[in-house]
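pasting for ref. prot 1 ->
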Amino acid sequence: MRRRIAVSIAAAAVLLLGASAAEAATLAVSGSKSCYRAGDTLTLSGTGYTPGGPVAVTLQEQDLGTTTADAAGNINVPILIRQLRGIDQRALVATDATNPAITATTQFLGSSLLVKIRPRNGNSARKLRISASGFTTGKRLYAHVLRKHYRRNVFIGKLKGPCRTLKVRKRVLTAATPDGRYTVQFDTKRRYSKKTKVLYKFRVTVT
């Protein structure tokens, strides 16, 4: 009987040690934006890890690799945001590879860069139902209709919220648009530029 009690007490001590280690770790993200999209970078910082040991990092349970804690058990690593779906809080987890009981979680708000248009076919002069998200480079959304020397810049609407979303009915083409195949580029620039990096585009045929 005494032996069983001793084993139970030892097991409880291990569990308490694991809980204490987990509570000791902290994790936080920092950056210049309140909402992040693919291509953005934020900084992940944490404390309480094994000094000089490896720390595994995951984003939404997907492996991002490992970093190394410094002599004080701290981590500070840039995270490049890859492809995201929808708008949601994303979980970043950093786990001590030496002692997996040492782990911490933090979150950031992330959005896909996306434009949806309905309908995709029909009269070129009709108003379209346009929804957009992830255009965190500005407060206004524009559409640029392009074909050879043809240029048409259209103000779509004001973007709202931290992830810069929009839902509106808007006419992008006109009845006078010449027949042909066009590229429609959405971005936050008033005029079209080849140097614009944050954009969403598709092609449409006018007949």
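and prot 2 ->
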Amino acid sequence: MSIDALEYLRYGWQLITGARVRGEIQICEERNRDVLPYLDNHSDPVILDLANGSLRPQYTILAAEGRKVFGIDLVNRPAAGLQAVGYKIARALMRGKLRLLLNDRSSRLICGDVALLPFHDGVFDLVTSVAAFEHFLSVPATLAEITRVLKPGGLVYARIHLFTCPSGGHNVRVAEVPLRHLPKGVEPWDHLRKHRLPFFVPLNEWRASQYLEEFSRRFEVLKHYCAMREGEHLLTPQIERELSEYSRDELTCGAYVIVARKPS
């Protein structure tokens, strides 16, 4: 099953109405609440937005706030074609809502590999990543690079779309966050049970405990929690029995946040 055109229309409507932007701003506000108490009153932190994506919403929001932010992703390269035009329109809608029509700050967007960062050691105060870690095929290598480019005492904020949640296979819907409805004929947690639907993006399939353990190897974990839940209404006793190796918390946590600090 591919994500159909109707889903992209819904996504576009969310951009036009500002719903998608409000969601991204909420994530930014949540990050501020999580990291600001640990930034030691740093008034002008240097920030890296890791794997900013084609839409690059968090990079755009941080730039709108006047932050010194850099974005890195393999998609940060010149592109042509209908898809490139579509993303350009989507970014214009995003920037319009943020009053950034003429201030894209694209000069700080870098095409690069998150597991081989093109930065000197110890240059960033904060590395932030939203809905990207689940796509990193070498999480340890990426964390090693984050450790290297962070200043001593620097912070990393990772908001991870967990593979174990109903939408964790990234093959159900793009327009519902959190997921509330499944397409006709699609069973809940297909990617953990039936494996009938193909994956369309790289996924490392890590669980929350694996991320936490790997972060703990290199950082002082300051806090970790589930920031968004989904699918509780889909979780029947039968499905729980089928997926007994997973806890209810794992199966319903759609966004897992880790806030950690590099040792001084």
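The radius of gyration is 18 Å.
The chain has a mean pLDDT of 87.
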